[in-house]
Write a structure and sequence with these properties.
mainly alpha, two-stranded antiparallel ribbon
Length: 86
């Protein structure tokens, strides 16, 4: 592991087309949420605001958080059935 890699980072071969932020499922496992690096910053800010129980500084921040909530809802709804063999 190089000094620039995060602990626990799973490095996989490049895939085409590029995986975008959204629901991802590996084989028959539970679907999950893949968040691209650029989306991590925004998601982190939304989560920090919720934990701190502070209002987002503007309406745009609220809308961004709502988008993350809706994306997570898509993962939960699409993956609501338990995978076979679990």
């Amino acid at each position: 592991m190089s000094e620039n890699e995060a602990p626990g980072l799973l490095v996989l071969p490049e895939v085409k087309p590029r995986v975008e932020t959204g629901p991802v499922q590996f084989g028959g496992d539970w679907p999950g949420l893949f968040v691209r690096g650029d989306g991590c910053i925004e998601l982190k800010e939304c989560l920090e605001a919720a934990i701190d129980q502070r209002a987002m500084p503007d309406r745009l921040g609220d809308l961004k958080c709502q988008e993350w909530i809706e994306l997570i809802d898509r993962v939960i709804v699409n993956g609501s059935k338990e995978p076979e063999g679990r």
